[in-house]
Amino acid sequence: MPRPDAASQAPRPAAAPTAEPSAPLPSTTAASAPAPAAAPLYLSDAAEFRAWLAQHGASARALLVGFHKVGSGVPSMTWPQSVDEALCMGWIDGVRTGVDALRYTIRFTPRRPGSHWSAVNVARMAELIAAGRVTAAGLAAWAQRDEARTARASYEQPGMPSLPPQAEAEFRTHAAAWAWFNAQAPSYRKRVIWNLLKAKQPATVARHLARLIEASAQQRRL
Question: Which pTM was predicted?
Fold first, then answer.
């Protein structure tokens, strides 16, 4: 009987193991793809921003606002104007990002209850309230701030805070009281002014101011 040759007796190579099915790759359909970044909204003046906030401020979660710098020659709302309107409507400015040499964007969002208020915004809010520019939404955001945290952060700021312009003008009409108040120690004046700036309503500001003027006229500290 013929013997099988050596080649036929050589061990056959082991079959390659069957690959486990790989995990499916993440879907790249439109449903799971990241949403494109929102295009900035460029506004020619503060009135347009106020109108947008009046219409959408209660429902929108954020707005990316575009700004043209002065050198661009394009009419544009300024950053200080935008902050004023945001404060009046219960919103706050956030991250600023440059677009090019003549443009930048700022992301605005509604204020969260209990959020921190900077000393600058506390002082500015008092001025806006006194001027009658703050809406119900803005007053609601102001009322929901963390008063203890805001007062502590504000009081710890260096320098002397300023009275709202209208309040200072009224105080100055009482020359003797104004002179006595300004002769007091900076620590006293700072405490009294911050207490007035914390007031939430124009009527409260007026009441605090009247008490301060009366006490100063009597050369008496509060």
Answer: 0.56
